[in-house]
Task: inverse folding
């Protein structure tokens, strides 16, 4: 057991806490990157078909877009047309309405703004000239039958297969939603970058360590003060603080006494 509290050489609680923080951040960054690449795997292209996996709530969601704005559509066979929250109308560049329609919902009749969208992207498909209704108090975009009706649909074991009907106005496009365009990808990269900085700052070689002799040289062949400096990982201020407990003119003798206390 060491007789001096300050002379304990080891990782200590501070280093352990730093290691915990470092690994939590590192694992969080890896998780975010993995989520960016797997979070969209519920929808995959299979030839000229689209496979959609049922989520945990028993629904099918398909990533898509209207113009530059990316949306996440809920497949709703009970909806006659595509329905989009009215709060998104400005972001999609829809200024006016072709007509005001009244739709029957679970909460009663609701008036909405009907218009024609030049194109709607659904996964790897583009549907030109699609009717849509912007509805107030709608939580998420709904993919109605005017879009679903352009596909032959089959469902089995939690999988929805959508294949364009022959002669349907559907174009095949390159998927617009990329893992590197999602916020988890960039946040994950930022977290890992912070981990790199913290790891080098916390666990990398300190300036004092970089100026000491290689560890391959035995410390017991050095002078007592050099041995004490080695025991303090090259921290000269710490070594000097320890030998101050012995007010001797001979610095080497004081260092020798400190070493005896440390390794006693």
Result:
């Amino acid at each position: 057991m060491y007789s001096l509290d300050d002379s304990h050489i080891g990782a200590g609680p501070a280093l352990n806490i730093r290691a915990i923080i470092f690994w939590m951040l590192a694992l969080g960054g890896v998780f975010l990157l993995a989520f960016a690449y797997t979070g969209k795997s519920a929808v995959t292209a299979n030839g000229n078909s689209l496979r959609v996996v049922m989520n945990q709530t028993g629904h099918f969601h398909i990533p898509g877009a209207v113009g530059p704005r990316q949306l996440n559509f809920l497949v709703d066979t009970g909806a006659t047309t595509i329905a989009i929250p009215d709060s998104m109308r400005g972001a999609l560049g829809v200024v006016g309405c072709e007509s005001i329609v009244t739709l029957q919902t679970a909460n009663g009749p609701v008036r909405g703004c009907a218009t024609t969208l030049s194109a709607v992207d659904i996964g790897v498909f583009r549907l030109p000239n699609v009717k849509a209704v912007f509805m107030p108090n709608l939580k998420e975009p709904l993919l109605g039958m005017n879009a679903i009706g352009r596909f032959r649909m089959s469902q089995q074991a939690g999988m929805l297969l959508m294949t364009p009907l022959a002669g349907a106005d559907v174009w095949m496009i390159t998927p617009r939603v990329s893992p590197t365009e999602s916020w988890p990808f960039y946040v994950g990269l930022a977290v890992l970058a912070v981990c790199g900085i913290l790891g080098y700052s916390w666990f990398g070689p300190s300036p004092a360590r970089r100026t000491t002799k290689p560890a391959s040289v035995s410390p017991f062949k050095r002078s007592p003060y050099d041995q004490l400096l080695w025991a303090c990982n090259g921290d000269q201020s710490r070594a000097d603080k320890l030998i101050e407990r012995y007010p001797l003119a001979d610095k080497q003798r004081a260092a020798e006494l400190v070493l005896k206390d440390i390794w006693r």
Notes: Helices lie at 12-38, 145-148, 183-203, 207-211, 224-231, 236-243, 251-262. Residues 1-12, 212-217 have pLDDT under 50 and may be disordered.
